Amino acid sequence: MVRFISSTLLPFLLSISNNNLEAVNAFSIPSLKRPTSITFLSPQKAKSQKQTILFSSSSENEKDKVTIAQEEATKLRELASILRGEVSEFEKSKANEEQKEKEEQESIRQEKIATRERYSAEVPILKGDGMTVLERVDFPPRLGKEKSFIQAVKAPLPLGLILGEHETIPGAIRVDEIDESGNGHSVGVRVGDLLRACTACQVIMETPTWQLLAGGIGQPKTKRFMYGTDGRPFEEVMDALGSNRMDPDGGDVWLVIEREGEQ
């Protein structure tokens, strides 16, 4: 005879205590196979285990997010470092270019200063108020650029110079001969120098305002000034040099010469 257990009764039998389970097992139920091991969990323990599984899964997700965030932060730091390096290189390159440009400008400025000093000289200039001041005056080279220089000297009369017109440079006055014991030679004038300028004296009639009102003709006065020789007739240049004898103060004659070679 075979005994059958209703399916509705089985959950009840499974929930009973171990003692009752042994009693049930005493029945001969051929259609049922006794399980080797059955674990029964209380509702509280099952809930706790479920929370543990959920918490563990959530913790793993949080760890993954933190790891990803750290990797992204590392990448951003690396990118920022690369950008800082590029900016630094750009600024360094820009600074080098600016420094190079400044050096080039300074070189050009110094070259202009050197050229002006080479082809200029400080000489006494008569101003409109009758005062004489030293000013730097430019003299463009006539013997060839970078082949000569300008020099100003002064010496008392007589100079001991024999001048003549240059054979190949029109309007240029050249020192043809010089007395080595003369004043010109003692201040550095040499044969072959070009005379570019010299002092000259001129007598003028100076009339004060009160004399003009009274109908006076004024008084003679000698003024001394720089005379440029470029393009001037030879005889006029010689007269200008000789006019320095009229200087009432007996001042030295200023000569501006151009000489071939380095200064």
Mean pLDDT: 81
Identify the overall geometry: elongated
The number of distinct helices, counting runs of at least 4 residues, comes to: 6
Q: Which series of helices and strands comes N to C?
A: HHHEEEEEHEHEHE
Major sheet characteristics: 6 strands, antiparallel
Write a concise synopsis of the structure shown.
The protein is built from six helices and eight strands, in the order αααβββββαβαβαβ.
Task: Give an overview of the whole structure.
The protein is of the alpha+beta class. Helix content is 41%, strand content 24%. The chain contains six helices and eight strands. It has helices spanning 10-14, 18-26, 43-118, 183-186, 209-213, 234-242; strands spanning 120-126, 132-138, 148-155, 161-165, 173-178, 194-206, 219-228, 253-260. Strands 3, 4, 5, 6, 7 and 8 form a six-stranded antiparallel beta sheet that branches. It has a two-stranded antiparallel ribbon with strand order 1-2. A hairpin with a 7-residue loop joins strand 4 (161-165) and strand 5. It is elongated, with a radius of gyration of 58 Å. The termini are far apart.
